[in-house]
């Protein structure tokens, strides 16, 4: 079943093409705390003169699962991986959190959906 998902969908895991590309050309450079694996092209295929980089997610394909340390490396902001740079998490760094949109943990600002905020003196507009 997992093989069929790999052939026909991209949202469950890596596609068959990505698996083949990664096996043939990928060099594993690191892994984050969520189990996502980060690769770069070992044969030198480049984008604007820089080695191609990509991530294989461990679980849901969701870009917000890439931590800030690895985001900089993936987008060529820094050249060293967090392991090479000996990244140290400071006490003021918040732990990485994936996007909560669409879940019960989503941010809900006070507003029209919050009936309690309109209970005190709000009247809707009525045309004359």
Number of strands: 5
Taking the alpha carbons of the first and last residues, their distance comes to: 63 Å
Order of helices and strands: HHEEEEEH
Mean pLDDT: 79
> What best-fitting shape do the alpha-carbon axes yield?
extended
Number of helices: 3
Estimated structural class = alpha+beta
Radius of gyration: 22 Å
Please specify the SSE layout and strand pairing:
Blueprint: H1 2-8, H2 16-25, E1 26-31, E2 37-41, E3 46-47, E4 50-51, E5 53-56, H3 68-74
Antiparallel strand pairs: 1-2, 2-5, 3-4
Give structural attributes.
single chain; 128 residues; alpha+beta; extended; two-stranded antiparallel ribbon
Write up what this structure looks like.
With 128 residues, the chain is an alpha+beta fold. It has a domain at 2-88. The protein is 19% helix and 15% strand. It contains three helices and five strands; from the N terminus they run H-H-E-E-E-E-E-H. The protein has helices spanning 2-8, 16-25, 68-74, and strands spanning 26-31, 37-41, 46-47, 50-51, 53-56. The strands form two sheets. Strands 1-2-5 form a three-stranded antiparallel β-sheet. The protein has a two-stranded antiparallel sheet with strand order 3-4.
